[in-house]
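Posting for a labmate who doesn't have an account.
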Amino acid sequence: MNRTEIELRIQILGPVRATIRGREVDLGPPKQRAVLALLALRAGRHVPLDDLIAALWAGQPPTRAANLVHTYVARLRHAVEPDTPRRQRTNVIVSVPGGYRLTVADDQLDLQVFRAGVRRASALRDSGELESAFARYGESIDQWQDPQIGDLSALLAEQDDVGPLRQEFLAAALDYIALGLELRRPDAVLPLAERLAQAEPLNERVQARVLQALTHIGQRAWAIERYADVRTRLKLDLGVDPGPELAAAYREVLDARPGVHQPPWRGPAPVVDELIGRAADLSAVCDLLREYRLVSLTGAAGVGKTALGLAAAEELRERFADGVAVADLANVRTGPDLTRAVEVAVDEPPARGAGRCEPLVHRLHDRKLLLVLDNAELVTDEAADLADDVLRNCPQITILLTSRELLGLPYEAVYPVRPLVVDAEPGHLAEQPALQLFARRAAQVRPGFRLTESNIDAVASVCRALDGLPLAIELAAACLRTQRLETLVDGLDDPLRRIQPPRRGVPSHHRSLHAAVHRSIELLDPAEQRCFTALGAMPAAFCLEAAAVADKAIAGEPRTVQMLLERLVDKSVLEVRHSSSGRRYRMLGTVHALARQLLYEHGVDGEPPSLGCTCGCHTGR
């Protein structure tokens, strides 16, 4: 096997494409791609010339059909074996009597990887290793970019091979869903079940799995409504009643008692997508919540506090009989509004005849609940008072808070959420969570996007310039819908203005990088704001001595520069590190960009001083 064979990858479970050493190769016009598609569908088997002709032309093929197929094969051989002499290009597409055969290793073709994964998952399930089987099924399902394999259907005039391939996916997906339900993981498999139900509206086995998943997550009413819709459609379209499997699933729905499977969840739900690069953080936060009744996740704008907090709440949901209540405080500014937001989140009306004057803690006294106070940075004092009152009077309630500023209560456990690190050696960049997050989000707006040898350095530069902040990385990746990667890299000198893709379904302070960072300034009092603005004239990293000249920018304030800097640290605007040479402070690049912008905007009137770092501790970012 030559070098090209080893590095060749062919994909047909989505767009039909091939890559060599991570770089996509030109497979030519549709009919030429169709030849490779059919050979890949029957990899390792003899594909007669007549079958290739039938797959390329419906009805009457042209008189030169055979010659055209030979020409397509010759061009494909050049594409997949570019470094091999012309007459020796038979390592991948082999000539056999009356046709051709595609010869590739199992890991070179995504269809073979899928089939091998399903076989391994089935074996693990049969041997009782259910968790490992579930994970392997999930990995195999992920091979399919398009379960409907629309590209194959469009390319091949003869569909005899496409239908059975869809059934392969369906069978594996149903096995995966059934195993997920057996392992009490309905939330993990419901999205796939819903997608299958949309694609297969009259498949009773698929619809039965959806009913079971909905029942397992406590959505009994929704499951009953779904069954009624499916039964009506079966009657109208096929003239039949539900069969035994669907009827049995419906009986399970009717027999299920509401709330018996999982405690309720009130308020914003966890993100649909998986967290990337946060496994260790998630484990650590869950450990803290098992030990402490007040846990605060703190960190800079866009670092992912909310996503991590909601994921931890979902992980520990079954520990709380009354479930999880999430109060989103992003737009809350006063104590009364905070109390109302919590009351709405816990959905706890006052006792009969008690009136609204009854304290919230009296109504929550006997509840066993995880209360999530999300985005609490603009009502820190009020949130501290409420948390203290609730925890002292409601012994079974645990509070998880996300904020850019900790509450400062004596029994508070604090977990600083850090950006995703991008510091690996060049050969391991693709393994970095920051780059994986970028690639995942980029693929959502530019289908087929992947980390390759040709783009990985540019992606790494984007992630580094954005300090590994998940929100910033997601926004940057979303820009690829209308921009080239090179254009995105060129705009990193002004990220607050240049990275503004359209975004919906998220809080207003997460719709742009500027909005997320600017929210931090709302936390600052006038003296802190002036200090922050003055720091825009310094490098992003500096020492305490270099910042001392900021005294001129805050004349008349009794507090020292050090005290102000510590307050900026407490509010996640600055980071501080201690070493033998003293304190060193650092602003994230996005935050520093806002400080520079404010410095420019106010420089005309106030002319903040130019603060240079003269001790030699750091220069530049």
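Reply:
Got it, the structure tokens are right above this. The CA atoms of residues 384 and 409 lie 7 Å apart.
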